[in-house]
Amino acid sequence: MMRQSDVLLLIDAPSANGRNPFLASKLIDYLGAGRRILGITDKQGTAANLLRQYGHIVVSPRDPDGIEAGIRRCFSEFQSGMADQVAIPEEFTTQHVVGQLADVMERLLHKTK
To answer: In this structure, are residues 26 and 41 in contact, taking their beta carbons and an 8 Å threshold?
Structure first.
């Protein structure tokens, strides 16, 4: 369903100091969907850094004008066909993640023998 979405939305509650150290697990799923992500999260923190690293939109939950601008940008990108042309970062593809899990399992199996 995420891959069929026009835009994916990540909303984090604002932190007291403007820095969110947490990473919502759904963000990893979102990055693997190949769709534009609008992150309404503190501008400093793990989620914001990942979103920016891969070219997604980050706006503060305390910035209503920024949120409006982010929504407008998403709408514009959708209309132009850019919203569904987002590259999936290699490290978040199913093949890569499963490959890493298989490597860990192999190492654990060899340690127990």
So the answer is: no
Contact status, residue 97 vs residue 47, Cβ threshold 8 Å: no
pTM score: 0.80
At 40 the three-state DSSP class reads: strand
- Whether the per-residue pLDDT at 49 is higher than 90: the answer is yes
Task: Please give the Cα distance from 99 to 86 (Å, whole number).
Answer: 23
Q: How far apart are CA 79 and CA 81, in angstroms?
A: 6
Residue of 19, 98, 90 lying closest to 53 (CA atoms): 90
Question: What's the rounded mean pLDDT across residues 87-95?
Answer: 82
- Of the candidates 55, 27, 28, the one whose C-alpha atom is nearest the C-alpha of residue 41 is 27
